[in-house]
Amino acid sequence: MTELVVISGKGGTGKTTLVGSFAALAEGAVVVDCDVDAANLHILLGGEVVEKRPYRGSEAAAIDRGKCVACGACAEACRFDAIRAEGDLYYVDPLSCEGCGACAHVCPAGAIRMEERQSGWIYVSRTPYGTLVHGELLPGEENSGKLVTRVKMRARGVARTEGASLLLIDGSPGIGCPVIASLSGAHAALIVAEPSRSALHDLLRVAGVARHFGSRLFLALNKADLSPRLAEEIRETAAREGITYLGEIPYDEGVTAAQLAGAPVVVHSDGPAAAAIQGIWGKLRGELAR
Ligand code: SF4
Ligand code: SF4
């Protein structure tokens, strides 16, 4: 099974537009939304949730009142002001607890234990374009990289069960922990960029992370016609870096129309962007088969 991750140096470059269309063109791929901080593929692809599992990605302290001797050592040790007292009654404010475990370490009565707590959800959805696995962090929860890893693990399990030959991953934007988790294990990474000065810098940074994992690197330029000069600079940089250029997608109002209609561009439109995406997918499929 091939793992292809689509990434970009920042959000809003058209990454999800491409993944949605690839899902429609690939037929039978398992699709994964690793942009857990702003998951939106399920809106684009539609369908229904068939599995919803709690994601337990963090811990919180819990005080056993039967053992507590009300010494106050835990409240003193807590740097997050998460332990409160009402008279001799000590309790943990779960919204403030960061799960560091310092309180449990200092408690002389062994009255504090660390408990797993739910940090989000992992979903499996059936869509008209294949099975989609996606995640959601609960408000205030951090460590989305860990959730990305769990979402991918679930997706690999689903792909094995379905006998899918392609795991199509919408990666997290940027180069932080979530995108590193998105890229881990990927055979190929398609970088989506728009022609801008910052995109040149982003391309090199994202390529550096992807190369670390030994992924084959590809590039597609979105709205390339908005700045032909910068588009050319990015293509030259990609060539120097050994990144295979697959093509460009012109600015096309059909893309916005497809988004508003909640459908992949290649399904909703037969305009220039849809034709370009089909061309890019054809080349990419050919490369992945080599
Ligand atoms: S685990 Fe850390 S943050 Fe939570 S209550 Fe204990 S000391 Fe405070
Ligand atoms: S450190 Fe332990 S015994 Fe002391 S107040 Fe906290 S929970 Fe109670």
Report what the structure shows.
This protein has 290 residues and is α/β, with parallel strands linked by helices. It contains eleven helices and eleven strands. The strands form two sheets. The chain has a nine-stranded mixed sheet, sandwiched between helices. The two termini are 14 Å apart. 44% of the residues are buried. The mean pLDDT is 89. The chain binds iron/sulfur cluster (2 copies).
In short:
By secondary structure, this protein is an alpha/beta fold. Helices cover about 40% and strands about 30% of the residues.
Quick tags:
Alpha-Beta Plaits; 9-stranded mixed β-sheet; 290 residues; Rossmann fold; alpha/beta; two-stranded antiparallel ribbon; binds iron/sulfur cluster; 28% strand
